[in-house]
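For reproducibility, we list the full input for the FE2/S2 (inorganic) cluster complex.
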Amino acid sequence: MMDSQKKIKLKVNGREHCFTIGDGCGEIPASETLVETIRERLLLTGTKRPCNEGGCGGCTVLIDGKPSLSCSTLTSECDGKQITTIEGLEDPVTHELHPIQQAFIDLDAIQCGMCTPGITLTAKALLDNNPDPTRQEVAEALAGNICRCTGYEKYFDGILLAAKRMRETANNGKGE
Ligand code: FES
Ligand code: FES
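The corresponding predicted structure, in tokenized form, follows.
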């Protein structure tokens, strides 16, 4: 093995993937971005790549729970990281959508959908850390996610609705 080669492990949506960084056949070039690996090697095309230059938030995934731009992240720097893409949000047992996804559907919040995976994951990280955000806090969390279609208000409504439903579910669980 050449010195320039390095083995890395990524956990994507709970499943481990091992890659070798290098220039050989089947290896990942050190310059490959995470969005390329996710979309083109793992075929998880729910992650969008609207600008590919760090300006729109459309490629957002969660890396160790934090919203991160996968077009501006090198796969070679993700060794040992837990990565969540939009495909990883459904309940693994019941296959129900995440409450944020369900709220967006219920409120008809989505238009073309290009921004939706990134917005959904950014919102998930917000609600994981702050289960009862204000509308202003939702707007601030989504400041880096550009949507050209909706004017954002229905997304804000959907995130607040999901937060309310998730709090109700948590409270019901406590009462059982
Ligand atoms: S595609 Fe990554 S920020 Fe736009
Ligand atoms: S729904 Fe079209 S960019 Fe947001």
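The two ends are 57 Å apart (CA to CA). The CA atoms of residues 39 and 45 lie 5 Å apart. Both points were considered when choosing residues for closer inspection.
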